[in-house]
Amino acid sequence: MCSLRHWLYILLSSALLATSPVQAATAQPLATQQMIDALAKANSSVVGVRVTAAEGARSTETLGERRSGSGVVISRDGLILTIGYLMLEAEQIEVITQDNKTLPARAVAYDLATGFGLLRSLLPLRETGVATLGSSQGLQPGDSLMAVTGPQATDDGGVSMTQLVSKRAFSGNWEYHIDTALFTSPPVLSGGANHSGAPLFNQKGELVGIGSLLVSDVTGQNRRLPGNMFVPVDLLRPILAEMQQSGTSLKSRRPWLGLNSSDQGGRIQVMRVSKDSPAELAGLEAGDVVLAVDGAKVTTLADFYKKLWDRVAPDGEISLTVLQGADVKTIVLKARDRMQTLKKPSGI
Known about the structure:
single chain, Thrombin, subunit H, six-stranded antiparallel beta barrel
């Protein structure tokens, strides 16, 4: 722990000096005392996550059969928060502790709406700490934060200091949207691809986000500034009990088309159509441009997704106005509940 504290001191000092002389001068005494203690405690709650997907799982096409990432223990009974795509359609789940023990775990919940996943170790995590849930509400651009990647069989994981660049909405090309995401830079590079599920801590050692993606522009202003997108834990609080009870949240029961799309200057262009999805069955193709949903014009991914999800039944008919080549067509397809298309891990 002494070496960790020393390392944290070096990282914090460098991060604070990189902000401004005034901020560094006021924060430096804290960095040598409470801050070091809080971040060392936070670091002790991080574990590695290793997953093997079920045979025939749809998600292996894009995520692979074997996946690795990170998680963070959030309760004494071994409940672990991670990013949900790691455990999607999992057959086998293991957690790796910081003392290099590999323990079996089971899936508790996957929430499509937020992207969070919950696991639980099947054996006690006696030497692992428990993270304190914080909030991203008070974070400001320029704030120094700590991201931690969990250990793997050939990697010890690592600690990285990063800075908040922006808080803004995020729309993923895979039919995913959250109204607030945290964007940080420099990117978390330690632990290879283990930024997936990596916890993000504030200077008090409180958990404020879970790592989702590496992105090329964290500013959202078409500048090349690489970094990470984290899902804020503020989205977890209202649904944590529901996730543990039912394996997901009610908001995850929504229409799914099976499209990967992108914003193209006020147009929604289809990049990829999932095999055997409602979109493929209805005849949509890569290169098509979605102009309207049920007659309502859409110009951004956020517009597109919110129009899709603005209905009670997740499996009803949806009318898309689509530009295919030089032809404008109306395509009616029957959406599906995405949660019903996935192989469920034992436990959910």
